[in-house]
Amino acid sequence: MIKELGLMVIPALLLFSLLGTLMVLGLVYAPIYYSVLFYSFLLLACHFMRGDSTFLYSVFGVKRTKMLFSVEYMLLSFPFLCFFLHRDELWAVAIVLLPFMIAWYVPCGGFSLRLPTFPCLASGSYEYHRTGRLTMPLFLPLMAGGAIGAYIGNRNLVVAVCVIAASVISMLLMREWHVEYLFNYKSASRFLKLKLLFALRNACVIFLPIIICLILVDLSLPQLLLGALYYLGASLLLFQVEMLCFVSGGTNSGNDIISVIVYMVLNAIFCVSLIVPQAMPFSMIVSGVMAYYAYSEIKKYK
Fold this sequence. Notes:
Radius of gyration: 23 Å
Number of helices: 12
Helix content: over 70%
Order of helices and strands: HHHHHHHHHHHH
Low-confidence stretches: none
Distance between the termini: 31 Å
């Protein structure tokens, strides 16, 4: 994901760093057995989902491979050992024996965790399936945060989750395109029509759980209008980012900085349209302008 994001990796890493910091702070103030369970789950997941065990056994043999696994798992346990010593939980230090037991006595491999994508997406929109697979580890906690916000009646939390979800999904739609990609479309107008249709359909599927949380946090007519505005704004944002991929230079990747600036402007317009509904027509105008420039770019090849 880092490789494909390019310069957009900067806000993504900041976001993941923030989530990592919140997780560490949560473990610091949570009961110690939470950390032990978290480390045990992490260790077992790494062990059971190894894809290199057959290769290592054939090259180094069983005994040396298990020793290699033990060293690798010990390195993984080192931060947790420091954490337990910092909290003066000496009994938890016993997990130092867990890597040796797992590496030597528990068979590894055999499980493959393939992240699911969003179900019921429109056929042909491969970029949305790819985005779904990349964002699922982050999107699930966001949906949980939206559900918690709706349950406790915290409107600001739900709105923040809505904005982050739309920004992350649209960010991963930023990708380099190739001329061969246009061979699947018989005309430039057909391309624009399908892209807009995919944005409307897929935004409904992807953001529906969050829109429901946004409505449930306060069952009122203004909140229903806010949910409708969010759906329309998110759909336009996805369409605008798709058009940006074609306007910003095609297969030439030399306009990354300009693309990042334009992407940030599009997200700003999206946020403003949620706060000030009168700005939504401006977002539509921006979509039309970007579609026109994308149409002009595509006409060079179609």
